[in-house]
Amino acid sequence: MESHYKKIVKDTDRRVIASMQRQIMDGGNACYGGFWDGTGIVQAKYAIYQVAPMIAAYCCTDSAFYRSGEIFERIIAGLTYIRGVQHENGLFDYITCNFFSAPDTAFCLKKLLPVYEYLRGMGEEEISPAEKVSWIGKITTEEISPAEKVSWMGKITTGEMEILRRLEEIIKDGADGMLAGGFHTPNHRWAIASILMACSKYFGSRKMEEAANTYLKEGIDCNEDGEFSEKSAGNYNRINNDAMILLSQVTGDTTYEQHVLRNLRMMLTYIEPDGSIFTANSTRFDKDLLVYPTDYYMEYLRMGQKYNIPEFLAMCNFIFDLAGEKNLAAPDCLIWFMLCPQYRNLEFGESYDFGNFHAFYRDSGIVRGRNGRFTYTVMSGKSNFFYLHSGTIKLEVKVCGSFCEHRAFKADNIEQLPGGGYHLNQVMRGWYYLPFEDAPETSDWWKMNQVARPKKYGPNMQIDVWVQEVKGGVDIRVKTSGVEGAPWRIELAFFGVNFLTSRQIDMPLTGSEVLVVKEGEVEVANGYETLLIETCLEKHHFIEGKEDSEKKTQGAFTLYLTDYTAFDREIHIRNKLGL
Questions:
Q1: CA distance 205 to 372
Q2: What is the pLDDT of residues 14-72, one digit of tens each?
Q3: β 499-502/568-575 pair status
Q4: SS3 letters for 12-40?
Q5: Following CA atoms 11, 13, 14, 15 in sequence, which dihedral angle do they give, to the nearest 10 degrees?
Q6: CA distances in angstroms from 353 to 4, 297, 317, 390, listed in the order given
Q7: Span 393-435, pLDDT tens digits
Q8: Rounded to whole angstroms, how far apart are CA atoms 364 and 3?
Q9: What is the pTM of this model?
């Protein structure tokens, strides 16, 4: 991966230059040594994420900043700021959200541990036996010649020793502070546990190990599909993977890495034709964000090398090819190549070929398919239950209307059909309150025990959806039953299109338009690709719905097909070239 390494060094130097411009070097400023983020906030976590690559560059012989006096001054200033905002109990604040925060302290220490490890002269579990350096800094099992011996401690400078000393103070106190615990989200548990377990080895702390195990005894929340609880393909899945790898490294228990292997295999089916990650299934902030898989690079490299998985190594090449194509920065991973120099000599010539695939992740309630130039997604529990991505055009499909408290179809389940298609189903159960049998204790509606109020049930409305992949596209059939005369709509929201054509109209598009076409087919295009949609239908134009209805997808051109229940309609979505 020598070519990868060269770009990583180059982009690390660029990161350092960018960080220098954001660093506060006015000695009279209370935030001296800190860094302004893009919103003008100065805080510990952001400073740590700027200082860590500075340290890597300072220690890297191939960096333009190798042992630079100016960078050393800035590193010391940054560490001084970080130490200054660390609470007496060792914890950091994440000032836009959490205070005295164990999980955010874990994320801070996670970024510092690799540079700390490098300066302590320790290697990794994945280094070959002839190169391997144990956690206590001694050569394991196999003696090697002094010329080959990896022994950074013998080469460390006074400046690097000062950086090491300051890092150790921050990390040791931070880990001590994390003993009190406390978290908000599922991934926080593994961030805290992995850092405490690692620090227990660094500092010989039984308390840290015991504290880590209090989290780990809950069991890892990664299902057989390889999906974690938050379904955050764009962010927290990789955070969990990093924690699992670290736990495996420091405990020697490789079962933690089995979760990572499953997730990375799943992620091979989550890449869209434009190279981005499918994020619409996430329950976290990355939902619907445009995210590229660059931060998965080290996970694919480490697991690909350790377990000799060719497709993982090919994915590393894909990520760097994508970075070149999209003008993306290389991942911030220089320190890992410094810790594990054998990665530079690992060469794998092929880039990952996604090919056609069909993956039904039953436990996660999601189907991912790829057919030629497009991918498609089917999901349960989501109003936007279907997605299609052709590379430059993205389509989302909803079925919306009003029935009692329901405002959109959200499938209760997905089943795979013998013919290869998928069936989604939801039963919306109607109900009405009835008067209490006995007079309530209060006439204040909001203080009444509404849970105990009797109900009258019915009618029920059933929605069935069938999705079938066909040559050059997908067919979607929508059937409603159980209720007559309700105005419902099928919403097709398009991103990346700028022109619509039908028998009746030619229409430029900017992404905010709404259109109801009475009949026939339409074409939506962008100069590169064209999608055909048939059969359009208009029985009403009640497309806004009630006051609390599902909102139109923001930033998309929206095409509506409207009808009254009960109806049974089929939509054909095709790439015009049939590819």
A1: 54
A2: 999 999 999 999 999 999 999 999 999 999 999 999 999 999 999 999 999 999 999 99
A3: unpaired
A4: HHHHHHHHHHHECCCCCCCCCCCECCCCC
A5: 90
A6: 19, 16, 11, 16
A7: 999 999 999 999 899 999 999 999 998 899 999 999 999 999 9
A8: 37
A9: 0.91
